[in-house]
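seq:
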Amino acid sequence: MYQYDEIDQALVDARVDEFRNQVERRLDGSLPEEEFRPLRLQNGLYLQRHAYMLRVAIPYGILSSRQLEQLAMIANRYDRGYGHFTTRQNIQFNWLKLEESPEILAYLAKVQMHAIQTSGNVVRNITSDPFAGVAHDEQVDPRPICELLRQWSTLHPEFAFLPRKFKIAINGATYDRAVIMAHDVGLLLKKDEHQKMTVDIYAGGGMGRTPLLASLVKSDLPWQQLPSYLNALLRVYNRYGRRDNLYKARIKILVKALGATQFSKEVEDQWIVSRDRSADFTDSELARVAKSFTKPAYKSLSNQTRENMIHQSSATAQKAFSKWLERNTKEHQVSGYISVVVSLKNHQGSAPGDATSEQMMAVAKLAQEFSFSEIRVTHEQNLVLADVEQSRLFALYQELTQHSLARSNIGLLTDMIVCPGGDFCSLANAKSLPIAAAIAEQYDNLDYLYDLGNLSINISGCINSCGHHHVANIGILGVDKDGTEWYQITLGGDQGNDTAIGKVIGPSFSAEQIPSVIAQIIEVFEQHRLAQEAFIETYQRIGMEPFKEFVYQKAERDVEHV
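struct:
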């Protein structure tokens, strides 16, 4: 992974000193809250419902075991013993004291981490494929480009006050595991016929109040020209983006208003004017950064069959291990190796994406022992050990089991993406964590979940859509009605190469109704399912009406019987 040079470290250290002074002035009353607020947000510090929340950047989702140990220490010493991994591959701590925040940032800086640009109307943490560099279907390893763009965008003076927050996702594989179509800018890295790297640029995607998928605005851009082209694109957004209306300020609204063709022309016109004044990336810069992403010291191993790997487990564990192997591992580029997804869902009743300090320490130790001391964070709020020897899988599985981290539910109904919701977030209209807990409790039978197959449920506590409910097969959105919490259901969303925005099924439901509504939706799916169809395939074949008709007629019947 990327290692800071002297410039990187000096910048982060200076930022800690600067923020320490700002906090001291806030605490002694010389800095009013209205002046302090933008300063703390620039350092990822929010004031939530109960306490301060710190959002820490994990660039493109890659952590060293040393960094994860430091996060565990922070969770243990300064929070309530856990951290929350988010959909932007960040981690959040929810119970911090303001006076301790500079000390926490100093501890982060010691392991080359920070919270810069995890908030505010700036380019946020750049996200990417959690299997980058090891994915079997990878065309281009996106990590060096992610790092170059991280350096380009960090504290970029021209883009310090954009109309709204700006999110970039980068994918270099055949399958899109970064959901690039749902971002302000999505970059698809690929190779041309001469094996040179080029980039397709998508713009204007995003969820929130007006969910839209991005449009292709530039094809086959030579990778060296990314900074000058993105400069031009962001300048157009800076110039024409709506600053008069918070809800219409995202770039997706501008792209929609202009149309993708006209937006692309505006960017091209700006690019012609400004590209000569904007330095392109160079081969030497890429080589400098790429040195941090060379292959680890893989052994020369042969691929094992699935049967062989299962055979290495104990007789009593074979069934469970077999399912874990099926659901929680991914094919690797290098023979004899495999990637493992560590589920942070439905374990010990904790919230999706939460990991205790003990679990973080355990994963850090396992990364050292099994996966070259590196951990990945997924936007689905799970962790990945990317480089595990196939012959050691059962040993790893046993270790994960001891820490309640071997739940074999990846891609299943209980692998939910969930925002913190009204339990923590001051923006939320409704709680999302109790809804997730109720659904998880209702579907605690793994054998039944295996029968249902791939099915995504995402939950957001408000229209900001941090739970990515729009791109779930079943999306749940918390809404406020006269001070009461209600929940709107969407169906038909999807992510990956077939990213789609779900459609609202109808009037919203109370919190108490949601588990039974989900059960009714599943019942319709099972009634109409052909062979081993996934939920989204059945939905696409039969449409919304059978679900809508059954759910609302059932609700009416229930009312009549009360």
